[in-house]
Amino acid sequence: MQRLFSGIQPTGIPQLGNYLGAIRNWVALQRDHECIFCLVDMHAITTWQDPAVLRQQTLAQTAVLLASGIDVQKHILFNQSAVSAHARLGWIFNCVARIGWLNRMTQFKDKAGKDREKHSAGLYVYPDLMAADIMAYKATVVPVGDDQKQHLELTNDIAQKFNHDYGTEFFPQVEALIPPQGARVMSLRDGTKKMSKSDPSAQSRIEMTDDADAIASKIKRAKTDSEPLPSEESGLENRPEARNLVTIYATLSGRTVADVLAQFGGQGFGPFKTALSDVVVAAIDPIAKETGRLLKEPGFLCDTLRDGANRARTIAEPIVSEAESLIGFLK
Ligand code: TYM
């Protein structure tokens, strides 16, 4: 059975993009992988987080993941900072990765914008820590949304350079599992921007704790253009908002975009938005309700993470310790 690792930043409530791009696939992949899921709080602080909010969101995300179907009896769920092996290997990888490689990371360029100099050094070396997250477990399968693809290519470069520099075959290569549909869900307010839990506008995203009314109202107010829906996929070109809504519908209902357009093509957005609300509510509402119930048990959520961290440590500790020996740290 292959070992799988994936992570999510506890910087807000997971949104529909996190669900379709990652969480839903994590749940499905549990059947035939040994899974390790991580709330990456050390990545979260690469931009400032209010400490009380970070703690609360770590618990809230734990609740959402459990409510979505992550099975902590069979698999591991924990928060990154509780396993110090991540930080130790992250530092080693800072010394393996080249500045030129990090300079090419598009996510850093997008997040830092024009004001690069004012951002934390942590934001710059963010992908090195991500490589460490995966390699601390020698995981070979990493299910992510489209925006993480470049980081996983870098992970493979770092693993390869480590192996080359120290004359070993110690770290494996990873395979990015990116879903064919739903890997890049866009904002409801702007079809050219990614849906994100940190977008200042809550109207731009559907959160996994939204109730049916909130979902219906956000979808009703979602930006569209004034043309009816096209009957064929080629008609979605240059219509990012229409493409996004149709893709969400298709992904959630397990259909192709062509199939959805064959049904709704020629109609205005009104009836389509009603149908879309129905499929989104059907997927999210049970998760939102179960999350609400779990949030009333913070002690249970803390225990779950603590148990997960203990189990994660037993895998990561010997691997990172051996990496330290390989590079000459005196033990
Ligand atoms: P994060 O917290 O931004 O997102 C978690 C997962 O959700 C996916 N995702 C999306 N998928 C489709 N459409 C969207 N709009 C959308 N927004 C987010 C992301 O691709 C991701 O899979 N760097 C990672 C966390 C991380 C990690 C790791 C992942 C840290 N270490 C090791 C894998 C392996 C991140 O910021 O995810």
Number of strands: 5
Give the names of the bound compounds.
Answer: tryptophanyl-5'AMP
* CATH homology-level superfamily of the largest domain: HUPs
Radius of gyration, in Å, reads 21 Å
User: Averaging pLDDT over every residue, what do you get?
Assistant: 97
Shape: globular
Which key phrases capture this entry?
7% strand, binds tryptophanyl-5'AMP, Rossmann fold, Tyrosyl-Transfer RNA Synthetase, 331 residues, mainly alpha, aa-tRNA-synth_Ic, EC 6.1.1.2, aminoacyl-trna synthetase, 13 helices, protein biosynthesis, 3-stranded parallel sheet
List the helices and strands and how they pair.
Elements: E1 2-8, H1 16-29, E2 33-39, H2 41-44, H3 51-68, E3 76-79, H4 85-96, H5 99-103, H6 106-112, H7 121-135, E4 141-143, H8 149-165, E5 175-177, H9 212-220, H10 240-253, H11 257-264, H12 269-295, H13 298-326
Parallel strand pairs: 1-2, 2-3, 4-5
Helix pairs in contact: 3-12, 4-7, 4-13, 7-8, 9-12, 10-11, 10-12
This protein binds tryptophanyl-5'AMP.
Tryptophanyl-5'AMP binds next to strand 1, helix 1 and helix 7.
Model description:
By secondary structure, the chain is mainly alpha-helical. It has two domains: 211 residues, HUPs (Rossmann fold, 3-Layer(aba) Sandwich), CATH 3.40.50.620; 92 residues, Tyrosyl-Transfer RNA Synthetase. Helix content is 54%, strand content 7%. The strands form two sheets. The protein has a three-stranded parallel beta sheet. β1, α1 and β2 form a beta-alpha-beta unit. α10 packs across α11. The longest helix is centred in the C-terminal third of the chain and has 29 residues. The protein is globular and about 70 Å long. The site of tryptophanyl-5'AMP (TYM) has 25 residues, from β1, α1 and α7. GO terms for molecular function: ATP binding; tryptophan-tRNA ligase activity. One of its GO terms (cellular component) is cytosol. Keywords: Aminoacyl-tRNA synthetase, ATP-binding, Cytoplasm, Ligase, Nucleotide-binding, Protein biosynthesis. Homodimer. This is Tryptophan--tRNA ligase.
